[in-house]
Amino acid sequence: MTDHDVVVIGAGISGVCAAIKLREAGVDDVLIIEKADTYGGTWRANTYPGCACDVPSGLYSFSFAPNSEWSRLFAGQPEILDYVNRVAHDNGLPARTRFGMEMLGARWDSKANHWRIETNTDEITARFLVTAAGPWNEPRFPDVPGLEDFPGEVFHSARWNHDYDLRGKRVAVLGTGASAVQFVPAIVPDVERLHLFQRTAQWVLPKLDHRVPEVEKALMRRIPFAIKALKSIEYTLMEGLGVAFRRPRPLMRGVQAVGSAYLRAVVRDRELREKLTPKYLLGCRRILFSNNYLQALTKPNVDVHATGVVEVKGNTVIGADGGTAEVDAIILGTGFHILDSPIADLIQGADGATMADHWKGSPEAYLGTVVAGFPNAFSVLGPSLGTGHSSAFAILEAQVEFIVSAIKTARQRDWTSIDVRPEVQGAYVDEVQAALGTTVYNSGGCQSYYLDVNGRNSFNWPWSTGALTRRVSVFDAADFTVTAPEVTPA
């Protein structure tokens, strides 16, 4: 058994950021445990054809590690993975990381005032626990009768089988979210026939992507403020879109008009266009950006089934509308366990109950970072911090600033534990839920992964990215119950 000041679960962008900033603050005894064999998190796991970011590269990077070498305005998966690996190695994290180590459970030991973390190799203890597994960690597999008995090939987009040759195959794709929008155009030229089963139509906007010319890269390298200037422009444009999310009726309809015009221009067939036209206000679900997805659906070897899948019988996929498709392979673009993350079942708080037990299906955390009853524990990219327009890097860096301040303060003042007060967490959750009511996330007229099993929006942040950064980054000890070692009188 080994003991550490801080143990970070996960070596994706959140875990990398947390470890770097903790070490910069003088917290040197930091251990990252990662079940895979390299850094990158979701960018390591998702290797499907066409995988790329839908946030401009200048924003989708660490503020302390600007990159002048992005090849495109919206970087692809291999390039982002290389970037995260490079930042981790440049900051000496390999010496602080144990790959191939998976957390099987963690429980707070009230007597010892530390976390006991069970892994697949041994048990470790930590004064502070930082979970950085991220919401896009565990793929969601649909509960479709007969799917397990399908005689052909089945895989999830986040577990792409690169050894399976799709050329000349009949392929069914289940799901039309952000991943499918990217991989469908990439495989259409190869397959004999593609059957896309679409339970809900998605709004798709054109992606203003382009290759970055060498002259622009040279400018970024030679002029120190050039990267900051570009990032500022991208931030301003994205925040402009964010205003529409918060004021949907007068503003988002204008953005939706762009999506409608794009759909009409690309899909000339009226019947197909009707299938692809959403029946809700743009922004209610995640907005998708693509310059080739709608175009791919017009190809002669593509059939769009505007229905969910109810059963698989042998090689036949059966839709809810009674339609069928004979296929050789099924690719699942069915998303992730976002609001029901399995890690919540593995973490036991001071009362012995798991985080999932406390949440009862509706995740909540003060500032998306700390949960009452779980002392000295922090989550990165936790509940109610997601937006439809900003970068995950901005969110996680604000959280990490909070976490570093909390841990540094506790160490300096020799506190054995800090635990957010339940009434503080409750007031914050009520405030967030009240503000979400008028946003497009809640009022746009759709069902999305933003809503948990109880129908509550436990995913979104209802204000601007600037407001998030200012509020989430500040640690205030008055919000916490603090314990310190007992002092024996002389």
Automatic annotation (TrEMBL):
It holds the Pfam family Pyr_redox_3. InterPro entries: FAD-bind_Monooxygenase_sf (IPR051209), FAD/NAD-bd_sf (IPR036188). One of its GO terms (molecular function) is monooxygenase activity. Keywords: Monooxygenase, Oxidoreductase. SUPFAM superfamilies: FAD/NAD(P)-binding domain. This is Cyclohexanone monooxygenase. It comes from Nocardia camponoti.
